[in-house]
Amino acid sequence: MLEDVVAVTAAGKSLRANPSPLQLLALLAPEQRWCRGAEARDADGNPVTFDNTRAAAWDITGALCTLFGWKRACELFRQLDRHIFGRKRLHIFNRCREMNALAALQDYNDDRGTTYEMVVTRLRTMPVWRGPQRCPEKSSGC
């Protein structure tokens, strides 16, 4: 369940303390914690929102939102879309690239030809930029 991966407050909202790609993979493992046709499902297989405390399985986009929050997930949708499809896509008819990427990821996740192993493999091979090293002391010259 959700509390296995992220802390849950009394109000049922998830806290996102230092999420990482490993948490994304952990959230979707084992295969029963991955779903299709909804951003999340409860233990009975009923669709729920990604942040519902009854959520027991997530699709790619629901998992990103659960761990990273909506704002950061929107940025990650485009990056993951580009990684999965191997190219930058032109979005001629819609200026909202994040929503186009979200829709493409949901289509990929829900496609009958997409397997759990395919999803996990793509997530494992996703390059992650960790940023510059932080200096413990300002005087160190970094």
Q: What does it look like?
A:
This protein has four helices and three strands. The chain is mainly alpha-helical. The chain has a three-stranded antiparallel beta sheet with strand order 2-1-3. The protein starts with 20 loop residues before the first helix and ends in an 18-residue tail after the last helix. 28% of the residues are buried. The model is unreliable at 1-15 (pLDDT under 50).
Summarize the structure.
By secondary structure, this protein is mainly alpha-helical. It has one domain. The protein is 39% helix and 6% strand.
Tell me the series of helices and strands, N- to C-terminal: HEEEHHH
Helical percentage: 25-40%
C-alpha Rg, in Å? 16 Å
Biggest pleated sheet: 3 strands, antiparallel
Number of DSSP helical runs: 4
| Structural domain count | 1
Overall SS class: mainly alpha
Tell me the distance between the termini: 42 Å
Characterize the overall form.
globular
Q: How would you write the strand order of the largest sheet? A: 2-1-3
* Mean pLDDT across residues: 79
Layout of strands and helices, then pairs:
Blueprint lengths: L20 H7 L12 E3 L4 E2 L6 E4 L1 H26 L11 H14 L5 H9 L18
Antiparallel strand pairs: 1-2, 1-3
Helix pairs in contact: 2-3
List keywords for this structure.
142 residues, mainly alpha, three-stranded antiparallel sheet, 4 helices, disordered N terminus
